[in-house]
Amino acid sequence: MTALTLAEKILAAHAGLDAVVPGQIVIAAVDVAIAQDGTGPLAIEQIEELGSARLKAPTCVFFIDHAAPAPRSELANAQKTIRAFCASSGATLSDVEMGVCHQRVAESYAKPGDLVIGADSHTCMAGALGAFATGMGSTDVAVGMASGQTWLRVPESFRIEVTGELQDGVEAKDLMLTLIGTLGADGATYKALEFGGPGIDALPMPGRLTLCNMSVEAGAKAGLMPSDDSTRAFLAALDREADWRPLAADPGASYERVVEVDAAAIVPTVSRPHAVDNTAPAAALKGTRVDQVLIGTCTNGRLEDLRAAARLRRGRRRAPHTRLIVTPASQAVARAAAAEGLFDVFWDAGAVVTNPGCGACVGIHEGILGDGEVCLSTANRNFHGRMGNPGAFIYLGSPATAAATAVAGEITDPRELL
Amino acid sequence: MTDEALRGRAWLFGDDISTDHIAPGRLFHLRTDLPQLARHVLEDARPEFAGEMRPGDFVVGGRNFGLGSSREHAPRIIKLAGAGAVLAQSFARIFFRNAINVGLPVLQCDTSGIGEQDELEVDLAGGEVRDLTTGAVIPFVPLPPVMVTILADGGLVAHVKMHGGFDLPEG
Prior knowledge:
The complex is a heterodimer. Chain A is α/β, with parallel strands linked by helices.
């Protein structure tokens, strides 16, 4: 038997083959296909062009999360199209109150061993459950939904071998920003990033989701985690333990590159404008005045992220010149955070707590920046113009760094406030 | 792909042109009105481009062109604006795949010697870009067979309709 990487194993199973090799083109069966309100209307147009009587992918979901609820009539009309299509086609609708597609896919739809395709580049987040999950355009997803199949080039895999444990005040986000700084924004283009090692064994699911979410920021096609006891516990807490199965790469699988990361050596890290791989230690950016802090999004809007931010905020207010926006990733997260009293902590600190969704990250509403303004965000992208204004500047960091920055009014290493 | 050579001027865009440069989130509401969105194509990288480019002109990038979001609207509006092709040293994965699906030629080649407003001729069948201003002949990396098939069939939807499913070469 050929020893397979996690990506090869999942793709072979979905192509009905015993083994696949990097570079091979496979036609693979799709388990979960998703689109959102930005990419969904075009996907629907393409499905209609295909003239398919019914959708063949077992799970097709449309999420209204990017502009939720609609801030403009054009968007309200696009959302009407999505609702009508879901009603007529049988696709599942996740409407404006439910939250970001990637968080919802992890909570409710993806399971270990699945092939997940999505018309959103951060679809790769579902790889944290031991799935092969990848972002595509509307047309590819339309064909995937309608035919139940997609074509894929089997990627070469990079093994990201993590040893050691993160220090107090240092989060998975810091590890990922450091890794992207090392690989470069195109350092893993077309590759699968397979995470493993004792540092990953010790990392709970929320951190794993953050790592897989940002795999695309190094150009990767997918980021994958083994499915283990942490995966099982995550699914069990969602009443989905029956969806769990163990999954790992074969010993002796072949990797194009092995990157070793010592988690214990990672420090709070920030990406500077306008590139995710433009990284620096948070401490080195002390003195950078910040107008707005955004905590949340699919990257870092989970309960554990909000707890990490609240820990630093308790009893502290935001700096007078620094607005603070908190956007939970999903309704489930928001409900749990409210029950724990975390929203009170944020409100007391002077925050705006928004409805769950993509929020200010994509530059549509709920926190667009002014000319020359600086934002520190827990999101995954800081591209020029990303938050709705090409004249603004975006830094990326962890929830702890974001919370510390909101308190100090300038970029701050959270360990200063622990 | 057509056998005819494409001809137009080069518009240089540099490295790491993201889909936010091409089709920014602040214009999210125009995604269901592509002709309107196309009037803003690449606005956040070069505001004058959309107004001054002529049909057939080329978008010339550096490394990692099209990184970021999966929004297929990005290659669609470059095509709709009339650009003949995108030339770059390298492309981000999703953008590249989307471009082929919607029939926008994307050519990976050494763009470092191409000057702003150089007159270019792209010979898709011959696999080369001719810089008529400098006289340079620049070969481009041939598309993988799977993408040649999709392009030749007129895009992914046309391919699937034509064959009743996927009918792609394995290499």
